[in-house]
Specification:
alpha+beta, BirA Bifunctional Protein, domain 2, eight-stranded mixed beta sheet, two-stranded antiparallel ribbon, 10 strands
């Protein structure tokens, strides 16, 4: 191999090492091995002093060109490695300061269990031929008590049970309704029988503990007809509870009770199994009071302009919050009014989960 051939081989070897350097430390080792004081290219340059003038003219430019090409290759490779290191660092330290895409209300929003249960009640009773009647939360003493056969001096009229508004100059006192029965009075006074309505809504009583709140939700039902009787009432309640709790059958127990607006009056218990953290309706050997009901008192019919010698009817009432707790396993009634988004996210329903009898009430 001629000396020129050895220079070419040396150049090829050094440039290959430059190209193969994985980082700047490896590249620095290649530079020292080639261009350092005892590097392979530097050693070749040292031989110029011992050459003849003719050889120096031939090999001097070739060695200087070799040194320049190696130095240029080292510089390019160093710049490339620096760019790659910067890109890697930028990628590892990247911080996305933009806001994430927010989920739509249909994804994050939830229907409150009370609203859902009201929709379930409406779906069930609508299928039975009932319509929905509503009335104001602020009522008169006459509609809330007198028309419903509450005698003067009845405990429910006292301040410790009822939220009364300030007395008017004429002596009249409005109040926050203590039940949705005034809606029944309004319906009977404005509608000719037969009547089949349910009356869901907010009601107010001065009470507060684990199972009572000053404001709660109630639904009452009313049927007025010429032939309505207790057998019809029992069937309506059985069908409602069976459908609402989504069980194949229920067993009810009727106990005598007293309400001013019904005669006879009854408390209704449903057979259940009471577990530590759950109540299962339709099975077991326990009983749970679920609602009150009875035949509409003749005095109430007269007060509403309905002839009790021609028409009779039955009514019932239950707490919406309470049956919601029983069905969906909520331990404390007060949580329904806590406005805790975490609680609502757990117990709430998706906005488009409309309850239907065909598709399932709570699916």
């Amino acid at each position: 191999m001629t000396d020129i051939d050895s220079l070419n081989a040396l150049e090829a070897d050094v440039l290959a090492q430059v190209a193969g350097a994985a980082d700047e430390a490896a590249l620095e080792a290649v530079r020292v091995a080639a261009l350092g004081k005892k590097g392979s290219v530097s050693e070749k340059l040292k031989t110029l002093g011992s050459m003849s003038p003719d050889d120096r003219k031939t090999f001097g430019p070739a060695l200087n060109a070799l040194r320049d090409r190696v130095a240029a290759a080292l510089g390019e490779r160093k710049a490339a490695l620096a760019d790659a290191a910067l890109e890697a660092r930028l990628a590892s330290e990247r911080l996305d300061v933009s806001l994430p895409v927010r989920e739509s209300g249909l994804e994050t929003g939830r229907i409150h269990p009370v609203s859902q249960v009201m929709d379930e009640l409406t779906a069930i009773f609508s299928a039975m031929g009932f319509s929905v009647a509503e009335g104001p939360d602020i009522e008169t003493d006459e509609l809330n008590f007198t028309a419903l056969n509450f005698p003067v001096g009845h405990p429910a009229r006292e301040m410790h049970d009822t939220f009364f508004l300030p007395e008017k100059p004429n002596g009249e006192r409005l109040l926050l309704r203590t039940h949705t029965s005034p809606v029944q009075v309004r319906t009977m006074r404005s509608t000719q029988p037969p009547i089949r309505v349910i009356c869901p809504g907010r009601t107010y009583r001065f009470d507060m503990d684990q199972t009572h709140t000053p404001m709660f939700h109630q639904v009452e039902g009313l049927v007025i007809d010429k032939e309505a009787h207790l057998g019809h009432l029992r069937w309506v309640l059985e069908e409602f509870l069976k459908t609402f709790f989504e069980v194949p059958s229920v067993e009810l127990r009727f106990r005598p009770s007293f309400f001013p607006f019904t005669e006879p009056s009854m408390e209704v218990d449903v057979r259940c199994r009471k577990l530590p953290n759950e109540v299962r309706i339709g099975e077991g050997d326990d009983w749970l009071e679920i609602l009150g009901c009875g035949m509409v008192h003749p005095n109430v019919l007269r007060n509403c302009g309905v002839d009790p010698d021609v028409y009779q009817g039955f009514a019932w009432g239950m707490g919406i919050d309470r049956i919601a707790m029983l069905k969906y396993g909520m331990p404390d009634l007060r949580d329904l009014f806590s406005a805790d988004a975490r609680w609502l996210s757990h117990y709430g329903f998706r906005p488009l989960d409309f309850p239907t009898l065909a598709g399932g009430l709570s699916s």
